[in-house]
Amino acid sequence: MGASVYVGVLGKNYLRVITYYRHGYSDTYFQQDHKSDGNVQLSNSSYNFTGITLGYGITRRLTVEIDAGYYYNKTQNFKNIDFSTHGQGLSNGNLTVKYGNYIKPAHQMEITSGIGFRFPFSASPQMVDGVQLNRDVQPSTNAFGMAGLLFFSKGFQPVSLRIFSINRYDYNFADRHEYKYGNILLNSVFISKKIVKYFFGIVQLRNEWKTNDRDFANPNENGGNEVINSGYDLVTVAPQLSYSIAGKWNLTVLCDLPVYKYYNGRQMTPKYSFAVSLTRDFNLGRKAPVAEPVSN
Q: What distance, in Å, lies between the first and last C-alpha atoms of the chain?
């Protein structure tokens, strides 16, 4: 997500709106931890994605969020033939409930846990001209899922520094065709530093570990259900810049740069991605001022 830094709980009756756009590009195959150029199908792949997240503070400790997104395109260009495949459409939606287990504003510390529920807008794979698109360009998993979240944040006011971490585990259920995407464990550490008023620099170090997909309807060459060319361990560095427009709108730009890749089988791997997000909080509990009657 382009707005991954905004994951803590909100104040009571606060509404947070996050919109973001992300572009990703890939042009390199990996087999385990090294490049694999021989006998590959694709020249490159890319996507353009936009999303929106709405969060609301029910109480001081309890926040609920819902988000959804749309792929303008998920594209694969083949290497030895003049052919490409394209998918587009709504991705999965997510409903997340977060609870502030430990919130100490005076010490700038927060520990928050959460649980999420993911749902598809369609249970059927996307078809083009009567042909089902391959899974790599499908905009949705077409399946339900669950997620667990743990967030920690600590600020250091004298040096205008903030350190926080996001730890998330996603579990995917099988779709109606008995295909199950791998589960994902994501661990991120952020360091945020105020540069000048309203302007912040952020560095994120993220590790993403994904288990093999499983195809229960189509056994692999060894007779098992694991999809051999799936699953990975990816380490990414993501520098970010954030600017607060008039102290209300937060504009963030970031770039994801992989620094370590380990992929099961042979897979096309990400080269880079960048994102732009815009965030604002609204206080819906603030009462409008009442005009006093004018005395003569």
A: 59
Cα distance between residue 78 and residue 127, in whole Å = 19
Contact 152, 106 (CB under 8 A): no
DSSP SS3 for 151: strand
Assigned token pair, 177: 């065709």
Whether pTM exceeds 0.85: yes
pLDDT in tens, 253-280: 999 999 999 999 999 999 999 999 999 9
User: Across the strands, what pairs with 35?
Assistant: 30
Pairwise CA distance, residues 97 & 150, whole Å: 12
Whether the CB-CB separation of 33 and 261 falls below 8 Å is answered with yes
pLDDT tens track for 175-231: 999 999 999 999 999 999 999 988 999 999 999 999 999 999 998 888 899 999 999
Our measurement of the distance from residue 58's CA atom to the centroid of its chain's CA atoms, rounded to an integer in Å, reads 23
Q: Which residue matches tokens 């990975």?
A: 232
Give phi and psi for 290, each to the nearest 5.
-95, 125
